[in-house]
Design a protein that fits this description.
This protein is mainly alpha-helical. About 60% of the residues lie in helices and about 5% in strands. It has 20 helices and three strands. The chain has a three-stranded antiparallel sheet.
Amino acid sequence: MYRQGVEVVIVPGGRMRSPSAGRSAIRLCIQSWDSWIVVLNEPIFSDNGHLRLDLLQWSHRATEYVRRNRKKLKGNVLRQIASSGKPAVPILAQALRDTENNIRCEAAKALGQIGDPQAVPALIEALQDVDRDVRRAAARALGQIGDSQAVPALRVHAELLSEAKHALEQLNASDFPLTLAVQTLAHQGEWGVLVRGLTTETVQQAVCVLGINAVPMLIQALEDPSTRRAAYRTLGNALIGMIESTFMQGLDDNDAEVRHNAVNVLGQISALTVRELPQKLQDELAYVRSAAAYAIGRICCEHPLEALIEALRDVDAYVRLAAAKALGDLGNPKAIPALERVQLLDPFYNPQAMCYPVREAAQEAIQKIRARQSSEKHVS
């Protein structure tokens, strides 16, 4: 009976032998990467019409052998499939989702060598693979195939992979605009490709242009340990852009209800920020404490004043530096005694700049606070 698929031959170890010819080879019909069927070369009925039980037993043993040893056999089977050329493309595309990294790499390599454009969608999807070597192999394959539909995905990954950059050169598309690439992938729903590209700042900036349309994708990216850091940064920048383009404009809207709602939303955001940020001044990592201090200074909130003054005693010099600058931005004269102490005694010395950065920041903060006091007295 004819079976649609690609036939391969494997030679098992041990005592697996065909009952008639003493052969140890097993023929398989690969209908899909998940469907391997043992093919019998000999008729299942003898010349006198009797069912050949020995052949059925051998077929059962062969099937069990393939099932038990599938993991060991995959590489050999894949290479034989690849040698059949274009008929192998659908099966190799399925192999790009195999659980083993090396099999996915081999499948991508084989698809590139065959050069059939029907493999392009599967290879674009492989650009979001968790394994960097698989992504590199997919990019190389797309360059070998040379189909223009891969350009947007390759442009995004050119920021990460030299193979993608080289593929763009092969396609004469090195100057394809990154923003257009991001917009094209978003329109096509290729969010996974975009997520994998988020680890570069240029892609983050381009994704932010999508505004609210990018939010679901970015929230999904928060679940992936390999992209969640970049996703948080990008999502934050996208939300800031949305606030600036919507709620800030709403403050000057002709409709009083719109202005009222915009003020309420911004007030809720500010209240949440004021409540949560001071807690991060106690974070176990210095760079988080430093970022919290800078953020508090930017929002000019009086609530965490005591926490910032306490941060002037932090063991990390850059946290103390951030706290001093934040206190200067707040402009509260209650911070002057603590800042004067830091101005005189902070021990951190930067030999490259030949200065005491924290002392200088404290001095500048004192000057800003006093200048603000003087300005307020003049106004009153």
